[in-house]
Automatic annotation (TrEMBL):
Name under which the protein is recorded: Molecular chaperone GroEL
InterPro entries the UniProt entry points to: GroEL-like_apical_dom_sf (IPR027409)
Protein species of origin: Candidatus Minimicrobia naudis
Length: 48
């Protein structure tokens, strides 16, 4: 999914997920440091 987004030329990403950890978090940080994406990760609210 991120590859298609990168090909579109857009750089700002808002990611809404239950958890962002491990390899996924590492990839987001690495892409930010390289200037590929400006990413913000938001923890999804839990509904009962």
């Amino acid at each position: 999914m991120l590859e298609k987004f990168a090909q579109s030329g857009k750089k700002d990403v808002v990611l809404i997920a239950d958890e962002v950890e491990g390899e996924a978090l590492s990839i987001l940080v690495l892409n930010k440091l390289k200037g590929v994406f400006n990413t913000i990760a938001v923890k999804a609210p839990k509904f009962q």
